[in-house]
Specification:
Layout: H1 3-15, H2 18-25, H3 29-43, H4 59-86, E1 92-97, H5 101-115, E2 120-125, H6 131-136, E3 142-145, E4 154-167, E5 189-193, H7 198-209, E6 215-220, H8 223-231, E7 237-240, E8 247-255, H9 262-278, E9 282-286
Parallel strand pairs: 1-2, 1-3, 5-6
Antiparallel strand pairs: 3-8, 4-7, 4-8, 4-9
Helix pairs in contact: 1-2, 1-3, 1-4, 2-3, 5-9
Length: about 290
């Protein structure tokens, strides 16, 4: 049996006859009768009492009618849900980010939530090194990265330009300096983020290139903990400017071959709109 057969069967049962059902469905009576006979043949049971002019259903017909109502209502609900999804009246958007890159999302998500309040948004915390795989494995639709993953299966959009800044306590001698060279930092005790990242490696390489020692005696798990520790006068740190400038870009990545969800397409539009309205470090540049 198929949906169209059930639709014809239900119309005959509800309208109380084949001719009235045919008028309701804008079909010929013979086409309606043929559809019902085919359905009866497939299930091996008569669905209507042919001796009655009112199209009375048999016991088998009453059982099937109950399920036909459920199936057809479910079909209608599915259609309505797809319309709502297309019109952004429902849906879910999952984005992968780490502690730092999630900060970029705050302004964009606020604007997205204002425009599309019915869309449920989940920001999934993950290590930056794992986010490309999360996107490729459909664990999230977008990922926010501080580097270009150079993966042919991923598309990338530059959405923010950030810099690392040197953070020191107010009482530190370097706090009064407008510019600080790497060589001036050789004697400092740095507080580092415990998670390895591309920007951390760039800092390490920069110190090596200038033959300057880099003392990272303490590693902490969050940016907030690092800021508080530095404020206590217990060290200095390099932090992303957005969290409190070596230059870097934030990228929004997504699967190149996959069709974005309606919510995903709307999110990209909002990210582009925020870049135009906020300007400054916000941007929207497609790499590929």
């Amino acid at each position: 049996m198929d949906i169209s057969q059930l639709e014809v069967f239900r119309a005959v049962a509800r309208e109380g006859g084949f001719s009235r059902a045919a008028n309701k469905l804008y079909r010929t009576q013979s086409a309606v009768s043929q559809s019902v006979r085919k359905l009866e043949s497939e299930i091996g049971e008569p669905l209507f009492d042919r001796s009655s002019r009112d199209g009375l259903v048999t016991d088998a017909g009453r059982v099937l009618l109950e399920y036909a109502d459920r199936l057809l209502n479910l079909r209608d609900n599915a259609r309505e849900a797809l319309v709502e999804l297309r019109e952004l009246q429902q849906g879910k958007l999952v984005i992968g980010a780490n502690e730092f890159t999630a900060l970029y999302l705050l302004r964009v998500l606020a604007e997205f939530g204002r425009l599309h309040p019915a869309i449920r948004i989940m920001v999934q915390r993950s290590l930056g090194s794992r986010i490309p795989d999360d996107v490729l494995r459909h664990n999230c639709e977008f990922g926010v990265l501080t580097y270009d993953p150079h993966d042919p299966e991923l598309s990338s959009v530059v959405v923010y330009s950030d810099e690392l800044i040197l953070v020191v306590p107010p009482s530190h001698p370097l706090a009064r300096e407008r510019r600080v060279s790497i060589r001036q930092l050789g004697a400092e005790s740095f507080v580092a983020h415990i998670v390895s990242s591309p920007y951390r490696e760039k800092v390490i390489q920069a110190f090596k290139q200038h033959n300057t020692p880099l003392h990272m005696g303490i590693e902490l798990p969050t940016l907030q903990a690092i800021k508080r520790f530095v404020a206590m006068g217990s060290g200095v740190a390099f932090l992303p400017e957005i969290s409190v400038e070596v230059h870097r870009k934030l990228r929004l990545i997504y699967r190149k071959s996959a069709s974005l969800s309606h919510a995903g397409q709307a999110f990209l539009k909002v990210a582009e709109s925020v870049a135009h309205t906020q300007a400054g470090r916000y941007r929207f540049e497609r790499d590929r």
